[in-house]
Fold Homoserine O-acetyltransferase.
Amino acid sequence: MNLLQFSYEQEFTLESGETLARFNLVYGTSGTLNETKDNVIWVCHALTGNASADDWWSGMIGEGKFYNPDEHFIICANIIGSHYGSTGPFSWNNKTDDRYYHDFPFVTIRDMVNAMELLRIHLGITKIHTCIGGSLGGQQAMEWAILQPTLIDNLILIATNAYHSAWGIAFNESQRMAIETDPTWKEKRPDAGIQGMKTARSIALLSYRHYETYTQKQTSPDKNKQDDFPASSYQRYQGEKLAKRFNAFSYWVLSKAMDSHNVGRGRGGVEAALRVIRSKTLVIGISTDILFPVSEQKYLAQTIPNAQYTEIESIYGHDGFLVEFEILSQILKQFYISSDIPKDIPVEKE
């Protein structure tokens, strides 16, 4: 995807009442906007994602993939608070003449969407054919469909919820507690808290995956082994991997934003907010998701007017939406051509 930057040079008021003097959003585009401007696919990324959706969702976006830039204008904006170029904790704070670090203001999912709405206006996009997102990305897509009920034709919500659960908040708080144990966390430097974030990522993986994922992928073939198990090295590897591409400040800010998610806040409650949605909506759950259990997606489908629900059988838990490209493509194909989604879609094997 081609990476570009949108700069908003006016004061931006956050839901908390705090303000940013200005902000930048890095966004990626692929394909060409057609003459009628009705081929926009807007992808909302999850917690540690970025604007290069064709990288982290390569099974869904690209030449020959379901969302093909030869047919669609695909866009993904890196959210406020993230690590990948948009305004966040490493941005300059004119009030202190230093980077924000711990002083970056509290942001919500709604703040992220309001910033993307300004980007949309800047780009002259008046209609979004499809807005799609999983996890925190789904939270953004849902907020946008409520904020602008006539903007999005097709809304696809994967492994997400209408408000973040006490269970999900507890996982996030445990991760922040891990960051706090890092003695460097209180320091104002880019790598502060990075060791703690490695542990936080290990905690997160336990909520992203499933018992069967670890059983099938991380069980040692050596039945006599007493130490140095594959599951142990895998957890450490995942922590190290994230530490090479992310920072603890953004991790903290975005996990707090996820905790704040509640579409009913200030709108008369969750049900009243969801009933505002006018998009043709597909809600997808993942059978083994313990972080966003399917009961949350079923609630969305039952409450959003005329929404459809389907479920992916997967051993990969919450991360199934980043892995199960084949079945997801088949589900989406059926969604676009039919008003009904089969409960069981056979996967064609090569």
User: Anything to note?
Assistant: The CA atoms of residues 31 and 69 lie 4 Å apart. The chain has two domains: 2-165+262-337, 168-258. The domain at 2-165+262-337 is CATH 3.40.50.1820 (Rossmann fold). The two ends are 28 Å apart (CA to CA).
